[in-house]
Specification:
Number of helices: 12
Order of helices and strands: HEHEHEHHEHHEEEEHEHHEEHEHE
Structural class: alpha/beta
Pfam families: Glyco_hydro_17
Keywords: Glycosidase, Hydrolase, Signal
Protein name: Glucan endo-1,3-beta-D-glucosidase
Strand order of the largest sheet: 5-4-3-2-1-13-12-9-6
Strand content: 5-15%
Oligomer: single chain
Distance between the termini: 36 Å
InterPro entries: GH, Glyco_hydro_17, Glyco_hydro_17_plant
Largest sheet: 9 strands, parallel
Signal peptide: 1-24
């Protein structure tokens, strides 16, 4: 794509904005594909549309998946796989422009892409790619600017909650000092481009790793106890975790950067505390808070986009058994448990 018709982009933006506007923050879902028995992408799109899900995160730019979403009112967060980053970082801008065209825009109008997620949890889980992350983001942004798409598509990089070395109480939120130079560069870019800091938040994992200090009811929004921190009151781990990130960003000098929860969820099987009822309670509370613009104690009334993990169970994922059981929907398209996205 050497040139994009600005009038076409404007029309698409207006139509998509009208078709996806809701009172509260956007609630989407992650579409993981590490599975052997998933329905075909067109069927998946039908499931999403019938459940009024207007935002989806896909982890890599699969042509068949992108084509299936093309022309719908569903907006996408498209992932750039970690292993692609060295190629983007070490080549001139025209390489990134062509990569975007060949892998994304050839299959779906750019106005359906809301975010490009550059890598996933690189600092913690894939540190080999750390030196390539910021250069990749910057050169992709230059490519978007050259295509007049930088105000339509925002770039970020989802981070695991464990990039924080301190998270309790929330006001003590602090980034890992070893990661701080990279984190500061990322936050500076996000601040300058009005892009969100993306976090993957799993109170289930926090409870599983520390059940002595974290109550299940606190992780599931069900506690009657309230923790006070600097005059703010917390009755759930989700809010406390997000405000730990807010405090860490403030401590780093970038308190104005907004948050997007790029992944959160609760498994239905495979471990202690997993189960359909707990998954329903957790996800329903997350959704209600998002669409109600509840915000967090540090940012009350500020709507926050959330992407639930996962659309379907992924039976080929490696790791702990519970990793395979986050699906909100069965492969038939029916909900495993009731959760409403609007």
């Amino acid at each position: 794509m050497s040139m994009i018709d600005c009038s076409v982009i404007l029309v698409w933006c207006i139509l998509l904005a009208l078709s996806t506007t809701i009172d509260g923050a956007q609630v989407g879902i992650c579409y993981g594909t590490i599975a052997s028995n998933l329905p075909p992408p067109p069927t998946v799109v039908s499931v999403l549309q019938s459940n009024a899900i207007g935002a989806v995160r896909i982890f890599k730019p699969d042509p068949e998946v992108l084509q299936s979403f093309s022309g719908t009112w569903i907006k996408l967060m498209v992932g750039v796989p970690n292993e692609v980053l060295p190629l983007l970082a070490q080549n001139p801008i025209n390489y990134s422009s062509q990569w975007l065209q060949d892998n994304i825009f050839a299959y779906i109008p750019p106005t359906q892409i809301k975010y490009i997620a550059v890598g996933n949890e690189i600092f913690i889980k894939d540190p080999y790619y750390t030196p390539f992350l910021i250069p990749s983001i910057k050169i992709l942004n230059q490519a978007l600017i050259s295509l007049n798409l930088d105000q339509i598509i925002k770039l970020s990089s989802p981070q695991a909650a464990c990039v924080l070395t301190k998270s309790f109480p929330p006001s003590n939120g602090t980034f890992n000092p070893e990661l701080l130079p990279h984190m500061n560069s990322l936050l500076k870019f996000l601040y300058e481009t009005d892009s969100p800091f993306m976090v993957n938040v799993y109170p289930f994992l926090s409870y599983l790793n520390n059940p002595r200090d974290i109550g299940l009811d606190y992780a599931l929004f069900s506690t009657l106890n309230v923790m006070m921190d600097n005059g703010l009151y917390y009755n759930n781990l989700f809010d406390a975790t997000l405000d730990s990130f807010v405090a860490a960003m403030e401590r780093a000098g970038f308190g104005g950067v907004r948050l997007v929860v790029s992944e959160t969820g609760w498994p239905t099987a495979g471990s202690k505390a997993a189960g359909t009822e707990n998954a329903r309670v957790y996800n329903e509370n997350v959704v209600r808070r998002a669409i109600g613009n509840v915000g967090t104690p540090k940012r009350p009334g500020v709507g926050m986009e959330v992407y639930l993990f996962d659309l379907f169970d992924e039976d080929q994922k490696i790791g702990e058994e519970f990793e395979k059981h986050f699906g909100v929907f069965g492969i038939s398209g029916d909900k495993v448990y009731d959760v409403c996205f609007t």
